[in-house]
Amino acid sequence: MNLFQQTNQKRHAFIIKDHVIRYIGSKQPDLLQITQIKERYLPLGIVVNGQIEDMTTFVTILTECVEEWKLKRQRIQFCLPQQHTIIRTHFIDGTIPDEEVKGQLYLDLGESLLLPFDDPIFDFKVIGMHDGQKEVLLFASRESVLNQYIDAFSEVHLKPNAADLSTLSAYRLFFENGQVQTGAYVIQVQIDAMVTTITIFKDHHPLFLSTILSELDQEGWSLTGEGDVTRLTWTKEEEEMEEAIEECVREVEKVMNFYQFNVLKGEGEMGQMLLCGDHPYLTQFEAAFSERLMLEIVGLSEQTKNDAPVRYYDAQGLVLKKEVYR
Fold first, then answer.
1. How far apart are CA 18 and CA 41, in angstroms?
2. Are 28 and 9 in contact (CB under 8 A)?
3. Of 81, 89, 273, 299, which has fewest CB within 10 angstroms of its CB?
């Protein structure tokens, strides 16, 4: 996703989720040039389902992060909440010039283009021509949610110069590691503590995006720490976690079956699963998928070329983003 353009070398990558703010600083879009790796866990209720519900407290916490991490007036990159983003293909008249595509998308809104929110901001990429129609890969996010984050960053004197999606940043890291199967449909399952995101890629293009909120009681998570390391720990019954893992596997199977038979009409199938996330039970999720799915499952092992833990997977991918506004 490329809401901004041109190039700049320094990277200040922010990932904001319901439960945490993560940050990686780097001299260049290169994981060997990382200078800072930081995180700050958020109390429940500050960010809910990707929306900032308590702006005052959020800005207070963000101010403390900016001061502690010495980031005031820096240009930053961040990821939009995926719960409020749609990815799909859309067809328009092939005679429409590329520079007029965005205007056409707004004209189609509410008619041939239906979205679950009425304040979209668009990004797009033309990916082909079919029978005189341009095939447009469309990214639509809620402008009101985007503006929440822009306003919060402005309050603490940070200057966003690139917006991305966590799922695209994660895929970028897999690709950088040489782990992506080419020529096949690839399903990426991103399991974070509060939400699971399922994305289907083909030829490095995201074609489908779905998010599933965790049904676990979020009060069951607590923070434990030793030294400078803080971890999320599940404190309720293990049976609840086992049920959540099983339900996640079922939901992923449903998405795979829907896409294979309703979208691809049985003429294609998934060749690979990319598995990532910050969920403390990610290893157990991987074992459950391995038991149920006849599919190559690829995960992100602990990095050896930098000090970033695996839970910073999307921040690392965001660091690698080349296109940012100067």
1. 9
2. yes
3. 89
Q: How many CA atoms lie within 13 A of 97 on its CB side?
A: 2
Q: For residues 171 and 190, give the distance between their C-alpha atoms in angstroms, rounded to a whole number.
A: 10
Q: What's the whole-model pTM score?
A: 0.93
Mean per-residue pLDDT for 103-121? 93
Q: How open is the CA angle 197-275-29, to the nearest 5 degrees?
A: 85
Residue 54: count other Cβ atoms within 10 Å of its Cβ. Answer: 15
How high is the pLDDT of residue 324? 86
Lookup result for tokens 């038991």: 291
Whole-angstrom distance, CA of residue 74 vs CA of residue 25: 11
User: Where does residue 269 rank: exposed (0-12), middle (13-18), buried (19+ CB within 10 A)?
Assistant: middle
DSSP letter for 51, please. Answer: E
Output the DSSP codes for 92-137.
Answer: EETTS-GGGHHHHHHHHBTTTB--SSSSEEEEEEEEEEETTEEEEE
How confident is the model over 52-80, as a mean pLDDT? 97
Q: Sign of the C-alpha dihedral, residues 143, 279, 76, 225?
A: positive
Cα four-point dihedral sign 208, 147, 312, 10: positive
DSSP 180-191: PPSSSEEEEEEE
Mean pLDDT for 249-272 is 92
Predicted confidence (pLDDT) per residue in 3-55, tens digit: 444 455 899 999 999 999 999 999 999 999 999 999 999 999 999 999 999 99
Single out the residue of 171, 169, 177 nearest to residue 201, CA to CA: 171
Backbone CA torsion sign across 203, 207, 213, 214: negative
Q: Under a CB-based contact definition with an 8 Å cutoff, are residues 11 and 319 in contact? A: yes
pLDDT at 269: 85
pLDDT of res. 4: 44
